[in-house]
Amino acid sequence: MSFQQQAHPDPPCLRFPENLGLHASVSVEAAANMLLRALQMSQNVPYMWTFIDKPAEGQLYLLYLQNPAQFPNDGVRYQDQETRLVIPVGNREMEISETKYGFVPNAQDTSAWRVRRRYRLHRGGHPQLVLVHYARGPAIREIIPSLLNSPVRQYPLRQITEPSVYIMGDKAGQKVYPSGSAPPPPPQVPTGMPPHPMGMNQQGMNPPVVNVNAPGMAMNPQAMLAQQNSAMEAIERRRERERPRERGSSMSGGRPGPPRLDDDDSADETETISARTLAITRYRRNHELMEEVFKQAALGNMKRPAPQPPYSIFDKLELEGKVNKLQEEVDALQAKRKARLASESVIASNVPSPMETAP
C-alpha cells in the first residue's frame, strides 16, 4: 500500500535529528559511505518530523521519504527540471537527482545559484533513505519577474507537535514522545469489532520497507503490521518458555495442570496479529511437531558402512605372480644382452689389424 500525504498541502518530512554540518561538496563515494552508515544509525535513532525551509549553502540532510520520487517543499523555487542519473558504486547502484537554478523568493537572492542534489542507494541499500545536499552552482542573472516575489509555500509554517518515530530495526514504527508528555489515548472501537480491519494490503504483499504514520493521518497498515510482528514474536518467545515446562510435567507423570486453550482459537491473537504472520507461525509450528514424529522414518539408518580401500578390486597373489613373471623375462633379456656383447668382443679380438695384413 503506497503512502499518501493528503492531510496537509505542505506536509513535513522525517529527518535524521543530528546536524550533518555544512559541506562545500559531496563526492559519490562519500555519499555512498554516509548512506551505508545511516543503515546502522537509523536503527537506534528516531527520526523527527520537520520542515526543510530555505536551507543554507552547503547544508546536508538525511531524510526518510515514503515516496522518493516526490521531494517535499524546501522553500526554494527552481527554474530547471530535475535530472536523474544512475551510476554503479561497487556492487551497488546510486541514483543522483539534481535540480539547478534555484532561488528563494522575497529574499536577498539576486540570481538563481542554488543547486539541490539527492543521493540514494536504490540497489544495495535502503531505497527510502535520501541524502540531500544544497550547494552553489552556476548562476543565471535572469530570474522570471513573476516568480521573484511569488513564495513557494505559505508562511508562517505550522508548529509540529508530532513525536519522533523509529523508521527501521526492532523498534520500527514506535513513537518517542518528549519528556513530560504522554501518548494520546487509543481510539474507541465498537464492541465486538476488531481494532484494525484486515484487508488485502495487510497480508505482506508489499516490499519489506517500513512506512510510518504521517502527522494527522490514520494508522499506516505496514507500521501496524510491524507492531503485529513484534507482538507475534513475543507470543512465540512465551511459547518457547512454556514448552520445556509442559514436557517436564508430562514426563514426570505428575498431576496434570489446567487445560491449555488452543492457540488457533485465540480471539486476541486473530484480532492483533495479521493473517499472514499467524499462518506462517502455524505452518512453522506444525512442521516442528511433524518433524519429531517422522524424523526416524524419513531419515532411516544414518550409519553408513566404512568405504572400501581403492586397491580392494585387485588380487594380491595375482599381482605378485605377474610381477615375478615380468622379472624373469627382464632377467632373461639381460642375460641375452650380456652373451651378445661377449660374442661381439671375441670376434673383434680375432680379426687381424691392417698393419698385420700388410706385405
In brief:
The chain is an alpha+beta fold and 359 residues long. It is 33% helix and 17% strand.
Give an overview in words.
It contains 7 helices and 10 strands. 33% of the residues lie in helices and 17% in strands. It has helices at 28-41, 145-148, 221-252, 267-272, 275-299, 316-350, 354-357; strands at 13-15, 48-50, 60-64, 77-78, 83-89, 92-103, 112-123, 129-140, 164-165, 175-176. The strands form 2 sheets. Strands 1, 2, 3, 4, 5, 6, 7 and 8 form an 8-stranded antiparallel β-sheet that branches. Strands 9-10 form a two-stranded antiparallel sheet. It is of the alpha+beta class. Residues 1-6, 189-219 and 261-267 have low confidence and may be disordered.
List keywords for this structure.
single chain; alpha+beta; eight-stranded antiparallel β-sheet; 10 strands
Write the layout of secondary structure elements.
Blueprint: E1 13-15, H1 28-41, E2 48-50, E3 60-64, E4 77-78, E5 83-89, E6 92-103, E7 112-123, E8 129-140, H2 145-148, E9 164-165, E10 175-176, H3 221-252, H4 267-272, H5 275-299, H6 316-350, H7 354-357
Q: What is the approximate shape?
A: elongated
Q: How helix-rich are the residues, as a percent range?
A: 25-40%
Question: Which stretches of 5+ consecutive residues score pLDDT under 50?
Answer: 1-6, 189-219, 261-267
Mean of pLDDT: 78
**Nearest-angstrom radius of gyration?**
41 Å
Structural class: alpha+beta
Number of helices: 7
Provide the β-strand percentage band. Answer: 15-25%
Order of helices and strands: EHEEEEEEEHEEHHHHH
How many strand segments? 10
Distance between the first and last residues' Cα: 127 Å
**Major sheet description:** 8 strands, antiparallel
